[in-house]
C-alpha cells in the first residue's frame, strides 16, 4: 500500500514528515489506518485513525514501544506468582503454545511425522530420566534461617553452536564460516526450543511455565532468553540442553538441479522444462529418504547462562527489560546503527548479506517453493511457484531464518491472554480518571457491537483512502487527544488520595 503522506508535492512530503515526528515524540502512531465510520442513528460520517499496531521500531516507534511495554507487563505478572493461574480458553495469535504438541523429531509437518522413522535416541545424545510430575506450575517456597519466605525463579539463556570464529559479530574468515549450517539451524530453531521445553517438563517434576523471547546474537545466530517460574537444579538444565536435538527428515537438498532453468507447470504437476518429465512429488521424494539418516540435526551450543531471581528486586526488573530488549527490532537490524551519521561496518553488512543469500534458496518447510530448485515438487504444489521467491518469512532479510514467533509464552504463565493484559492497562487509566471525577475514554466509542434501535449495528465501518491533508489532520488530531488524556491522567494521579497502580506508562 502506498504511503498517503508520500506524494509528489514537496510541501506534502515535508508536512507528512513533520506530522510523523510530532506523533513519534508524543507516543502516537504516525502511520495509522484510516477508517470511515457511519453513524446510522445520526447520519454523520466520521474518519477515524486506528494505530497500525506494528511491533517493529523501524515501521512505527510508538506502536512498537507500546507492544514492548505490554510484553513487559505480561512477563512480570506471571514470573513470580504464588497462586495457580486459570488456563484461558483461547489465546491470541501471538500467544500460541507450540510446545504443547509432542511430535516425532521432524521439522516438516504431519506428512513426515506419520512416516516410519528411527525412534532410537541418537548415540551422541544422553538419555533423560522421567520423574513424577506434580500438578503445579508455581515454584516452591523456601524459608531462610531468619524465617523469611521467598519463592525464587530463574532466568535462562540458550544459544546455538559456533559456525566459525567471529570478531565484532562478523566472521574472521567468511570463506570457512559454515553459513549453510547456520541458516538451517535458524530455520529449525523454534522446533528445537519446543523440544527443550518438552524434555525439561519430563525431568523437572512440575509443569514448567515460561516467558521466552527469541533474539539474535551479534553474530546473527538466534538465541533464547527465558524467564522460568520456579527453580530447577542447574545440573538438570545442563543435562536437558545436552540431550535436546531435532532431526530434520527432508529429502536431500545438497545439489541444485535447476539453477539456470525453471521447472514448468503443466496444469497438474511441475515437470522438466526441456524433456517434460514430471518431477518427483513430495511423497515420492520422502519414500527415498533413508529412515536412519536425517537431512539435518540441530542442537544447542555449549554456551549456557542461568541465574536465580527473586522478586520484587532490581535484578528482576533488569532481567525483564533485558529479555524484551530487542523485540522492537528485526533480526538484521538488532545490531546495525540507527543513526544515519554512523556508517555501518562493511564486514558486518557483508555478513548479513551472505547469510541472507544462503537462506534465499534453502527450504524453509515442506511447502517451500525452493524444493523446485532441487528437482522436487513441494507438498501441495500449485501453479506460480518459483525457487528463490518463497513467501515464507524465514527467507526475508528482516528475519534471517526465523520464520516463527519472537515471543513464546506457555499457556499457564499469567492466566490471561494478551488482549486481557491490554485491557488491564486501559482499566488502570480509566479507574484513575474516574476516581478523580474525570470522564475516562469511552470504551464503546463507535464500537461495532453497539446496536441501533432496529437491532442492527449502529456504526458501520468501511475502508477509505483520504488525501494527504486529511491524513495529516487525523494524525495531529490523535496527537492532541493523546496529550489531553496524558494531562488528565497525570492530574488524576496527583489528585487521588490513595496511590494508583502506575503499570500503564501511557493512556490506552
UniProtKB/TrEMBL annotation:
Residues 78-91, 111-138 have a biased composition (Basic and acidic residues). Residues 92-107 have a biased composition (Acidic residues). It holds the Pfam family RepSA. Residues 78-138 are annotated as: Disordered. It comes from the Bacteria. This is Replication initiation protein. It comes from Microlunatus phosphovorus (strain ATCC 700054 / DSM 10555 / JCM 9379 / NBRC 101784 / NCIMB 13414 / VKM Ac-1990 / NM-1). The lineage of its organism: Bacteria, Bacillati, Actinomycetota, Actinomycetes, Propionibacteriales.
Amino acid at each position: 500500500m502506498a504511503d498517503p503522506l508520500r506524494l509528489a508535492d514537496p510541501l506534502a512530503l515535508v508536512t507528512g514528515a513533520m506530522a510523523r515526528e510530532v506523533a513519534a515524540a508524543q507516543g502516537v502512531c504516525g502511520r495509522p489506518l484510516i477508517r470511515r465510520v457511519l453513524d446510522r442513528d445520526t447520519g454523520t460520517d466520521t474518519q477515524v485513525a486506528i494505530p497500525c499496531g506494528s511491533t517493529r521500531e523501524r515501521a512505527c516507534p510508538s506502536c512498537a514501544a507500546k507492544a514492548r511495554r505490554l510484553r513487559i507487563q505480561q512477563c512480570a505478572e506471571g514470573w513470580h506468582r504464588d497462586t495457580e493461574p486459570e488456563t484461558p480458553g483461547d489465546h491470541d495469535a501471538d500467544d500460541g503454545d507450540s510446545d504443547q504438541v509432542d511430535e516425532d523429531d521432524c521439522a516438516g509437518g504431519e506428512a513426515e511425522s506419520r512416516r516410519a522413522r528411527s525412534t532410537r535416541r541418537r548415540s551422541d545424545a544422553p538419555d533423560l530420566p522421567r520423574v513424577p510430575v506434580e500438578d503445579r506450575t508455581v515454584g516452591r517456597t523456601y524459608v531462610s534461617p531468619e524465617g523469611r519466605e521467598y519463592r525464587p525463579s530463574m532466568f535462562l539463556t540458550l544459544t546455538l553452536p559456533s559456525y566459525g570464529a567471529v570478531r565484532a559479530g562478523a566472521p574472521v574468515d567468511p570463506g570457512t564460516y559454515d553459513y549453510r549450517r547456520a541458516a538451517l539451524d535458524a530455520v529449525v530453531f523454534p522446533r528445537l526450543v519446543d523440544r527443550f521445553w518438552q524434555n525439561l517438563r519430563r525431568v523437572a517434576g512440575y509443569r514448567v511455565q515460561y516467558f521466552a523471547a527469541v533474539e539474535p546474537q551479534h553474530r546473527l545466530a538466534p538465541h533464547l532468553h527465558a524467564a522460568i517460574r520456579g527453580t530447577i537444579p542447574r545440573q538438570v538444565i545442563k543435562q536437558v540442553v545436552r540431550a535436546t536435538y531435532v532431526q530434520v527428515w527432508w529429502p536431500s537438498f545438497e545439489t541444485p538441479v535447476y539453477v539456470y532453468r525453471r521447472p514448468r507447470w503443466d496444469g497438474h504437476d511441475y515437470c522438466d522444462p526441456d524433456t517434460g518429465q514430471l518431477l518427483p512429488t513430495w511423497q515420492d521424494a520422502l519414500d527415498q529418504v533413508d529412515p536412519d539418516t536425517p537431512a539435518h540435526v540441530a542442537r544447542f551450543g555449549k554456551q549456557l547462562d542461568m541465574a536465580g531471581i527473586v522478586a520484587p528486586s532490581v535484578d528482576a526488573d533488569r532481567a525483564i527489560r533485558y529479555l524484551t530488549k530487542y523485540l522492537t527490532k528485526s533480526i538484521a537490524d538488532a545490531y546495525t546503527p540507527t543513526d544515519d551519521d554512523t556508517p555501518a561496518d562493511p564486514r558486518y553488512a557483508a555478513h548479513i548479506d551472505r547469510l541472507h543469500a544462503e537462506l534465499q534458496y534453502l527450504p524453509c518447510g515442506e511447502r517451500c517453493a525452493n524444493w523446485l530448485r532441487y528437482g522436487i515438487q513441494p507438498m501441495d504444489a500449485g501453479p506460480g511457484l518459483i525457487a528463490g521467491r518463497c513467501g515464507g518469512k524465514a527467507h526475508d532479510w528482516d528475519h534471517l531464518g526465523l520464520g516463527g514467533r519472537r515471543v513464546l509464552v506457555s499457556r499457564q504463565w499469567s492466566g490471561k491472554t494478551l488482549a486481557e493484559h491490554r485491557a488491564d492497562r486501559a482499566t488502570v487509566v480509566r479507574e484513575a480518571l474516574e476516581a478523580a471525577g474525570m470522564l475516562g475514554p469511552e470504551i464503546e466509542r463507535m464500537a461495532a457491537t453497539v446496536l441501533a434501535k432496529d437491532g442492527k449495528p449502529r456504526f458501520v465501518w468501511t475502508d477509505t483512502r483520504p488525501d494527504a491533508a486529511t491524513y495529516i489532520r487525523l494524525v495531529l488530531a490523535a496527537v492532541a487527544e493523546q496529550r489531553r488524556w496524558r494531562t488528565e491522567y497525570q492530574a488524576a494521579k496527583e489528585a487521588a488520595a490513595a496511590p494508583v497502580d502506575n503499570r500503564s506508562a501511557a493512556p490506552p
